[in-house]
Design goal:
about 35% strand, alpha+beta, 3 helices, about 15% helix, 4-stranded antiparallel beta sheet
Length: about 120
C-alpha cells in the first residue's frame, strides 16, 4: 500500500486487474512470460493465473512496505461485520456470510470482461 509494486512474470501468464484509490479500473489485461507491470502505491491489484499456472516475482519500492489482503483468513473481508458486507455489496445476509467465511481465495474479476483465457490474448 505504501510502496510501488513491480510484478514480473517468469513463467506462464496471468490476468491482472488494477484499480486506483477511487475504485476506477486502470489496468485489466494479460501479462505474458517476461512482461512486467508497475502497480502504483495505494492501488489494489488482483492476479489470476492462466490455465497452466503462472510464476512471478514481485518487488516493492519500500523496505517497510505495508500490504492488505482482500481475500482469505487474514483478509479485510473477514474483519468486516456480515451486515456491512451485505449492505456494501448489496448481498443477502447469507451470501455475505459465504463471502466472509467460505473463501480461501477469491475471484474478483467482473463477469462479461473480455478475457478469453487463451495464451495469446493481449
Amino acid at each position: 500500500m505504501n510502496a510501488h509494486n513491480i510484478i514480473y512474470v517468469t513463467d506462464g501468464y496471468m490476468r491482472i486487474q488494477i484499480v486506483n484509490d477511487q475504485g476506477q479500473e486502470v489496468f485489466n489485461d494479460v501479462l505474458q512470460e517476461q512482461q512486467l507491470v508497475v502497480v502504483p502505491q495505494n492501488f489494489a491489484v488482483v492476479k489470476q493465473a492462466g490455465e497452466q499456472g503462472s510464476k512471478w516475482i514481485s518487488f516493492r519500492t519500500n523496505d517497510n512496505a505495508i500490504m492488505n489482503t482482500l481475500a482469505g483468513r487474514t483478509s479485510v473481508m473477514r474483519a468486516l461485520p456480515v451486515d456491512v458486507l451485505a449492505n456494501a455489496y448489496q448481498l443477502s445476509r447469507e451470501d455475505a456470510q459465504k463471502l466472509k467465511y467460505n473463501r480461501q481465495e477469491s475471484v474478483l474479476f467482473m463477469p462479461g470482461s473480455s478475457y478469453t483465457g487463451s495464451r495469446g490474448a493481449m
